[in-house]
């Protein structure tokens, strides 16, 4: 599974079960129902998985302060994923980042926005204050 697919699955299907088919630019995908895929109680808003509730719950259990709302590194750490520069460059490639991957600050901001956008495109409800 792609890194983006792993991120989407861990957030939209936090109890396991279904494998999310995250959309990358130029693709279309269908995502199994979170209820059917999870086998658990997934917080929902307007019929969509409440991304904020899922991530806040994970953050409360993390044992460290992780600012998933603004940091792609912290978001990846929260999901127990490799957040190294090489992993983020891999995610950038997967999402067709056209900027300079050696400018990690700019790339990180772009990645965070793209991941939140992909979560919304794949059945997540992202807080309005985190949208472009």
UniProtKB/TrEMBL annotation:
* Any single Pfam family the record assigns to this protein: DUF3597
Biased-composition ranges, Polar residues, are 21-33
InterPro entries (UniProt xref): DUF3597
Ranges where the DUF3597 domain occurs: 4-127
Q: Which domain of life does the protein's organism represent?
A: Bacteria
Q: Where is this region: Disordered?
A: 16-42
Full protein name: DUF3597 domain-containing protein
């Amino acid at each position: 599974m792609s890194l983006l697919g792993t991120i989407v699955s861990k957030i939209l299907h936090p109890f396991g079960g279904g494998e999310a088919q995250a959309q990358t630019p130029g693709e279309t995908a269908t995502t199994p129902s979170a209820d059917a895929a999870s086998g658990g109680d997934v917080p929902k808003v307007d019929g969509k998985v409440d991304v904020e509730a899922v991530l806040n719950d994970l953050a409360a259990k993390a044992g460290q302060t992780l600012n998933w709302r603004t940091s792609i590194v912290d978001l990846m750490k929260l999901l127990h994923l490799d957040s190294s520069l090489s992993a983020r460059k891999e995610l950038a490639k997967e999402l067709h980042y056209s900027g300079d991957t050696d400018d990690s600050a700019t790339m990180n901001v772009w990645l965070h926005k793209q991941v939140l956008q992909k979560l919304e495109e794949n059945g997540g409800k992202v807080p309005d204050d985190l949208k472009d």
